[in-house]
Amino acid sequence: MLVSDLIRSERTAFIKRRAAELGFMYCGISKAEFLEEEAPRLENWLNRQMHGQMGYMANHFDKRLDPRLLVDGAKSVISLLLNYYPAEEDQLPPDTLQISKYAYGRDYHFVIKDKLKTLLADIQQEIGEVGGRVFVDSAPVMDKVWAKKSGLGWVGKNSNLITPGVGSFYFIAELIIDLELEPDGPIKDYCGTCRKCMDACPTDAISDPYVVDGSKCISYFTIELKDQIPTEVGGKLGNWVFGCDICQDVCPWNRFAKPHQEPQFRAHPQLKEMNTKDWQEITHELFTELFRQSAVKRTGYAGLTRTIQFVTEPQADFLYTEKAPREDA
Hints:
Binding site for tRNA: 226
EC number: 1.17.99.6
Number of strands: 8
Helix content: 25-40%
Active site: 137
Oligomer: single chain
Domain 4Fe-4S ferredoxin-type: 179-211
Distance between the termini: 40 Å
Pathway: tRNA modification; tRNA-queuosine biosynthesis
Order of helices and strands: HEHHEEHEHEEEHHEHHHH
């Protein structure tokens, strides 16, 4: 082994070890380069208007495909996974209104960004002058693609990254740095013939395997859409008022999901006590108390109450309460 190879290997091992110490489930490395295979896929998805009103998805097309346009001299993309799956006793009762599990506790942007900044500072302290940026779902970075390239999982038919023995209930974040590291290789796709996520989606957002029409997703209607929710989806949103976990809940791989160990992701105690009537009568003051530093603040009080009213109207007769299956993947 050449000395340069040895140094690169030692640096890579240090970064992965430190990431684990900071609480990340997994850390994978990929070479910072142009995403040639993704370019036509992204262009086709945008041309089919599957991003709906999410205009930002069409911005910075070139930067989404090339991390070297985001970080000068970028050589490596470090992908990291952070578990957010709540223990069963911490989950909202299935017979009340639901918010996506990722939004139970403190906004993940704050939690993960703090960890990433610490990791970058540790890298600089250990190795020397290293330039880079941290990314947490707030810049034109194709996080699932990079995580797939670095061997952290495969992108399933529901377009979520899925990790063997873990599932998909985790956040993905990146460090893009100008340091050459040992890249990891991708793993194979283990979805097989399973189509549980496709069959379970009430709005048919996954009409084609591996392609999700974002403009039909329940998360889109409850978070991104600023207009009134279309009447044609009345009764199809079930009891979801912020986000949706259906395609993950039915995924057989998520039977492996284990509870997270991050105190900041714990839900406000009062949240678990709320029944549907409590949700319907939520005040601005209670909203602020429950979701002070939560991702739910993105939709705002007006957006949340709009959705609550929509899903509790008489036509909303579809309530999704099925738990994740326990049969083999």
